[in-house]
Amino acid sequence: MAAWKGSSVLITGGNRGLGLEMVRQFLESPNPPDQVFAGCRDPEGPRAKCLYSMFLDITDPVSIKEAAKQVESKLNNRGLNLLINNAAINLHRTLDETDSDDMMRCYETNVVGPMLMAKEFLPCLKMAAQSSDLQGMCCRKAAVINLSTLVASIEKCPETFGVAPMYPYRTSKAALNMLTQCLSEDFRKEEILCNAIHPGWVKTDMGGKEAPLDVVDSVGGVFQVLSALTEKNAGQCLDWEGKIIPCMIVHFCPHCGTKIEAGFKFCPSCGVMLPQQDPEETVTDSISQMAVSHASPYSASCSTGQGSHIDLLPRSPLCTPPRKRVMFASIKEEEENHVTESSVVSKSASAAKGKGKRARRMSGIEPLSENEVLTDTSNKKWRLAKLLEQSDCGILYGVDKWRKHHKLDFLGIPTCVGFGLHADTYRFLILPNMGVTLQSIVGENGASLSERAVLQVACRILDVLEYIHDSEYVHADIRAENVYVDPTDLKQASGLTCTVIQVHLAGYCYAFRYSPSGNHVEYRELSRTPHEGAVEFLSIDSHKGAGPSRRSDLQSLGYCMLKWMCGSLPWSDQIDNPSTVMAEKERQVPQRSMYKTDVKGLLEQGFGKRKTSAALRAYLDQVMALGYNENPNYEELRNRIKDALQKLGASVQDPIDVTLI
């Protein structure tokens, strides 16, 4: 058992059964909590010698409020570390035997009670989380644990229903699982962990004498699970042995809503990996290994130096899908290959959050070793050279027809030259060498580019965005690290000056299908992970967890243009705090409206005493005024940039001089 010394614990239903045994094992552990609160409706009934026993009826809001006051007075401003909602009732009823009173009694005790407990004790939990020195989320820091049951699993219902229908109990505990998910999402920002735990079928007054599991073993197992939980498990329902319990069957894609059939691993409409359950995975074996197993769905990503780019995708998803990853490694061609005209659009269901300006979440899967040979579907061999970078992953589209239709000589989308499956684990794509990233040229030191260079790059990126948007996707991660340029002299690329002929937009990690089958998604905040992507350049839609739309890409490109011209943005020093950055982007400045509409104020702060760019202001004025569903006028945006370039004595077709200024 983990060392609980220094922590405080509150257990509801603490005078019998599981609650009583939890109190006993906490107090008899080698390093017990400083304070254990046992809440029950009969404080004088059988109980362990807990540090503090109090009256608590979780069906009575007044009783809960009074208990919260009592606990708070005993905590001495240290906060409550662990709330275990154990109190519950079980009514064995068939449909014929169940009436409305039965349903309401179970729901009031098993769902409303835990909800009110979490609500009333939230200030104490927040205080514990804020005062803790522990990193991440864990039960010793601040957590809400709801005791649930296997029979609440919608997916497992066909297996368990015949044994015991229990209509009131099953449905109320299924609702408790949803409550746990909601609390997990709500409390995540406070670093308060929320999980549901199935203690097993236990010999207690509720479980009966026929139950196969002793209460001592059940609680011992539950405590091992609690000791191992981290933020990676937030919201999950697990059993007393640490196995994840699937709460529902996925009959639709959680991203685009498309109906799916059993056995699908990816959505046939938007390509997102669907949540699935690995029944053998346990928390107690090794929480950390959930992120590193080759069977995990983490994708890894490799970038090519002399040859091409490779995207590697593992095959098996978990129940709560972790973020997909891709490794970028340089590769060498082992045989002669013929390049086909196609491109990559990457897709990811989640976001990576970093602590530093360029911090990236690394893939949990082991990168392949250098010089390993991969064979694509046409039996061409490719040798891995050097691992350059790890980030996220992709989907394929043809671009040649679109490029010719729009009379473009060049479209900066990477072409796929090979793909396949390696070692029955890694799905890979091979992409040609696109040069170096724009970020590798401008660096981290606030260097800026000329207005002419920025407008030339932006115009070429606009071509790519129009193509992607026409294909029903948005990029959702516009930044210098994802813009590749091919300097005429690679030796100059790391210096202060070089000229560029072609510009590619890569890094489709967060690509999102905003218009499945031509139907634009609705604007819904928190429908996706808030602040997903590069925080510095995110649109406000993405900050708020709404699905990114076409305006999101164009607004992010506008932020990039401002950064490339000025060397920084007004919120560049705040990117470790996404909420602060969002507030800055929305902030009311004195006698001005928000940055998202007050383009003049934003440019004045960015350029300082220097003359602002009229072309950038015209671009931002147009894209900041776009509606969520509105189709941008790409031609007008391009023409304004071209007109500005003409006044600067240049054109889009000219080589780009990316000299730092």
TrEMBL record:
One GO CC term on file: cytoplasm
GO function terms (MF aspect): ATP binding; oxidoreductase activity; protein kinase activity
Compositional bias annotation for Low complexity: 342-353
Presence of keyword Nucleotide-binding: no
Region entry Disordered, spans: 339-362
Superkingdom, taxonomy of origin: Eukaryota
Key word Kinase present: yes
Residue stretches spanning the membrane: none
UniProt protein name: Inactive serine/threonine-protein kinase VRK3
Species: Acipenser ruthenus
Lineage summary: Eukaryota, Metazoa, Chordata, Craniata, Vertebrata
